[in-house]
Amino acid sequence: MPRASRTAVLSAGLALIAALSACGTEPLPQARALMATQPDPRPAASTMLSQVIGKINERGSVRSSVRGSLGMVGELAAEGTVHYRGPLADLAFSGQTRAPGNKPQQIELSIVDGVGYLQTPLTRPAPDKPWLKITPGGADFGAKLLSPALHQLHEAVDPRATFSGVETATRIQQSAPDTVDGKPATRYELRVITSQAADVSADPQQRAQFRQAAQDGEPELGYQLWLDESGLPARFAASQEVAQAGKVSLTSTYRDWGAPTEIPVPPAGQVGVFEDLPRQAQQPPR
């Protein structure tokens, strides 16, 4: 598949990416050993994060804006709602992706019970099926390509997905007064220590994610979290270098905590899957 075709198809998946970690530098073995024997002077984030997660669960829903750069793919701008229930976060977003030099592409997305439904001109399964179904762990092409991106989007709109279970492995790098949409807030620079997170997490997927990051030479993953005066998230941001895309940096901004939400599921007759490469990604005839 030519690079241009790969990039076009991947752009739909990249538009879902979120809550990505900042890259770190692997310390020398002697430095790692010294770090392991010395207490971390940074404040623990566990108490603060536990309170934030509790407040999110109490409110149960929020309206959110997602903005950011998708590297060589372009920019993402979307508006939507999130419904938090138990460990899950159902969501619905509508917006646009725009690659450099190209026209904006409309994108519609719902995730309900962990299953994604995506509508964009780049991923139309069939003429009469505008919605692509993405089932985690599915064997079809769409699931294999986009399931990881759905997991990352979940983290982008749901700070609980990033920090739940690893609160004790998270440190406050720094904090400072700030504003979000003109309202007072406190900005926290948070660092998840990957080796510790892999040890304390009870979730297999989360544990594997942090273990892989530690093995890849990322001792810490960085996030930014803004809290409003009531202690609820006002904004959440992170970035990472992504293969074939460059630097991806996405930010979620929250408003109207506790607002009524409705997360639609497309009619079954309008939903399809890609069993193999979609036509848009297949190499054109020579």
TrEMBL record:
<dbReference type="InterPro" id="IPR029046">
    <property type="entry name" value="LolA/LolB/LppX"/>
</dbReference>
<feature type="signal peptide">
    <location>
        <begin position="1"/>
        <end position="24"/>
    </location>
</feature>
<feature type="region of interest" description="Disordered">
    <location>
        <begin position="260"/>
        <end position="286"/>
    </location>
</feature>
<keyword id="KW-0732">Signal</keyword>
<dbReference type="InterPro" id="IPR006311">
    <property type="entry name" value="TAT_signal"/>
</dbReference>
<protein>
    <recommendedName>
        <fullName>Lipoprotein LprG</fullName>
    </recommendedName>
</protein>
